Amino acid sequence: MQKKKSAYFLPFIVGLFYFFLYLPIVVLIIFSFNEDPFVFYWKGFSFKWYMKLFQAGEVWDAFKNSLIVAVTSTSLSIVMGTLLVVYGAKRQLANLQSLFYSILAMPEIVLAVSMLSFFSFMGVSLGFSTLIAGHTLLGLGYIVPIIYIRFNELDKRLVEAAYDLGATPEQVIYTIIIPLLRPAIFSSGLLAFVISLDDFVFSFFCAGGTAQTLPIYIFAMIKTGVSPVIAALSSVLLVLSSAIVMMAALLQIKRIGKGATR
Amino acid sequence: MNKQSLRATIAKEFTFLFSLPALIWPLVFLCVPLATILYLSVVSGTVPIISFHKYFQLIDWMHTRIIMRSLILGFGTAVMCLVCAYPIAYFFAIKAGRFKNLFLFLLMIPMWTNFLIQVYGWFFLLEYNGLINTFLLKVGLINEPLYLMNNMVAVFILMIYCYVPFMLMPLYTILEKLNIHLLEASSDLGASPMQTFMRITLPLSMPGIRTGTLLVFVLGFGEFAIPALVGGGKYMMVGSLISYYFLVVRDMGLGAAFTVLSGLVLIFFSFCIYLILGVWCLRDTKEEI
Predict the structure, then answer these.
(1) What mean pLDDT do residues B205-214 have?
(2) Which residues on B lie below 8 Å from A136 (Cβ)?
(3) Whole-number Å distance between alpha carbons of A199 and B245
(4) What are chain A's domains?
């Protein structure tokens, strides 16, 4: 009897968890189609908030800014992170991991505020470059540990075989190591990209007036009151992030498939 | 030594240069800024003098209360996240079987969504005339709507919602490595499910609990956006006060001093949590052996 009860208990909790996980998101999507601007009652189906969203220029400016920052900072941190793992001295690399973990283990506000005071101390004016500097730092914090873990899991015999067959260090790196690291590079890059798009605190402190990103725009809109345009924007972004997750998941499946055939 | 091998030797000696950018970047944008903030907090005046008067200025009841409130917020969030995430991680790791990937995939979509959107979704639920109040009124559990927004309830709900993944992932990682045979052996030897859980599963998952708790505690302590959005501006947190000093008052020295002070408090309490949970890990593994 007792066994039966406990058998239902855990799935029930998990169901409840997923219910509350998705409830706000589903409600948000439903209400983005609501006719009435007084958003808590359902008045009728309408696309008008989406029309308004596509006409609102500042949303797309903010989105463009976010994309510029995310693409630049992700590329920078991918290149630097990969070079570090591939070329770095092995023993120091292990010791250095704590440096990159410490980026993640610090409250973001401390990072952002110290960077802000550093920039104003140096007389650097805030804008895209300062924001990209911050997001690249965050990106390195995610990318270096992931690539490093994958690097350690590599089959070292492949590298040794390449050397035995007369490959130069460059050849080993570019034809053996980097192709094997590619899934890790790609998935960690995707993560850094999403983190950068998502980031609010850095943008709030280090962007200045010129580089208003999307989270800053959403934050300001939410603070001024509930607006169905934001609900419409949120639904669009949700579709976007689901697509990214789908891409990451497909990549994972492909990688597992490759591993199985090898 | 011929030319080619000489060139190869030189290349070998200098390839480490390629690894430097990724080291210089954190040095310039992490270590130097942290040093800057430390410098700003102790140096003042046009003629730089080292003094701690800013720190003394900060030691009063108001600042203590704000730091304590953030500590409670961080710790409370960590504990609630642990309570919510443990059964889920346990289910994923041990019971979910072949649907595990589907569950994890469903978990990832909200995680990879902008957290402001998640916060905004809760507005529809928590507002005075929002869905939760409408539902409770219809069912008849309450007679008039509850105030769920602009108070600590809303802050805690959203903190848990946003930080649960940070607890879930370390727990799942550690529980997935758990040897199922230990659980089977325990129940074969006559332990009740409760005993098995308390004496096998829980002690073995302690490292994951420790990582998750520390992570959520540290991040929750510095949280800035959620209290600003749903806290109703009534409760100052460490994050909001830091941004107040830097962006509103524009007193960098005082802001820096407060950042350093709250950072030290945070490090102290994180260390305490680390030690307490660590002692627990150690004692239980010893018992195990």
Answers:
(1) 91
(2) 25, 29
(3) 21
(4) 58-261 (1.10.3720.10)
